[in-house]
Each structure stands twice: as C-alpha cells, then as structure tokens.
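Worked Example 4.2. Consider the chain below.
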Amino acid sequence: MISERGTLSLPFNSVFITYSVSYRNKKLYFSIFNMENFLTITFMIPPFLETILLAIIDFFYGLYPQKTPSIDQLKGAKLVSHRGERDNISVFENTLESIGIAVQNGIWGVEFDIRWTKDLVPIVFHDPTADRVFNKKITIKDQTFLELRENLPLIPSLEEVVEKFGKKIHFLIEIKKEEFPFLEEQKIILKKILSPLEEQSDYHTLTLNPETLPLVDFLKPGTKLLVAELNFKHLLTIVEKENLGGLLGHYLFLGKRTLEKLQIKDQILGTGYVRSKNLFFREVNRGVHWIFSNHAVEVEKMRKELIQKQET
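Applying the procedure from the previous section yields the following structure tokens:
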C-alpha cells in the first residue's frame, strides 16, 4: 500500500485542506480531514474518475488569475513535451514524428519512455502492450526488434531517436518498470547508445520506480530523477539521500516545501501537466524548473508571444 498525507492550498481565499491519499489493491482512496484533524470522509476514486477529477482541478486552476511572470522568468521557463506532440489519431505518441514536431517548434525538452524487445533492443514506447495506442494485441517484450518493426513500424528504437534528435532537444528518458533479465548486458547496450550525448546537458533519465535505477547506475546521480505519483514524500527522501537530480510529479502535490528542499541542494522540480495560461504562470512564478505539458507547442507559442509583448 502507498499512503501519503499533506495539506493542499486551494486557488481561492487561502483555503487549506488536510488530506490523505492511499493506493491499495489497485484502487485510489482519498480522505479529507476537518479543522480538528478528525477524519470526516473517505472515498474510493475509480480510474475513470481520476481522469475527470484531474480535469476539474486543471479547470479551476486555469480560471484562477495569476501574476504575469517577468520577462526573465518567461525566458528561463523550460517546457517539456510529454511523449512528443501527438493526438494518437494522425500523429502517435513516442514516435519520430511526434518528437520531430516538438523539435521543429523549439520546445526545450521531450519526455519519452523506453522498453526492451526480446532481443534486447531498447525501443521508445510507453505501454507494455500495443493495445491502447495501436489497437494491436502485441506484447513488446515478446517481440524481437525485427518482428516489432514489421508489426508496428512507427515504434522507433532509442538509437534511432538519439541519431535523429540528439543535441537538438533535451531528452527526458523514462525507464519503465520491467524485468531486466540480462542487466549487465543491457547496461552496456544503453551506455553505448547514449555515448554520443552528454549527461545533464543533453539528457536526464526518469523513473517512477527506484528499483529500476540499477539499469542506469553508470550515470552520475544528478542525471537521474524520480517521478512521484502519491508517494512523493517517500521519493523525496530517496532523492535527498542519494543526491539524485530531482523530483517530478503533479503540480497539485509538489508544493512550496518540496520546492524549497530541492532548491537548497540545486535539485530539479518538474511538474505537469500544464495547458492553461494561469497554470503556466503559477508554475513559472513559483520557480518550477521543468514544466511538462501534453500541449507543449500551444504553451510555447503563448510563452513566446508574452516575451515579445514585454519586449515591445
């Protein structure tokens, strides 16, 4: 069971809510406490409601007016295209095309995921199977790279992405949790593919699961970041202890105290997913280093227009 407790500051009238979130038996539970810190209500949030709830939260934060950041803050804002720019209809996530669109539009960084084929080729894909994206009953780890290329030609290898876009956009490479049956060999393969790039200047690695860190133990600690879901306090402890590069997660849960702790050690805080102007302003104003978005081109256009407006 994963369980965290904290305080949320709502975007109006300085309202604070003490909450507890837990994840057990593959179900999300949310508890709210009253002013005396006694439990008032607990409810389970099914997966489809998680999406709706997050959309509602985004809506309200999007409505709440924020101070326009300074021109220096806007110029320093680093936007990350989450899985590239895609609609999964005409342009699919984690493909050369989706990453290329981010590059063409001057986005600072792109996040993508890697998995391994049966013959130990790291490929760029999020899910363990192709059902959701390509509507095909194919399990990635059961395919050789040649089989995958024949069945799912849009899925690129990590090597192809590095060759085509390396040093043109900052890579945020997410290591997915899966078995590493030949760990030492896989490390050698990964290290060779990344060798044309410079750590931290050209790329960082991300993971939701600290147990995957042995795959990238050849990298400097500052190159590796953890991604929090509900376990942000636990992961922050690991980040601080191991002196990792930083912590990423949903903007709602990564607040002022977390940012201050990371800033003391020059570690990175990244949040997502931003689309509206007010939410973008909020994250820039509070000093978030990396701002992830599923609509990075749209947000980048807004950022450039604001810079141009302030310069004239």
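The chain has eleven helices and 13 strands. Residues 71-311 form a domain with the TIM Barrel fold (CATH 3.20.20.190). Compare this with Example 4.1 before moving on.
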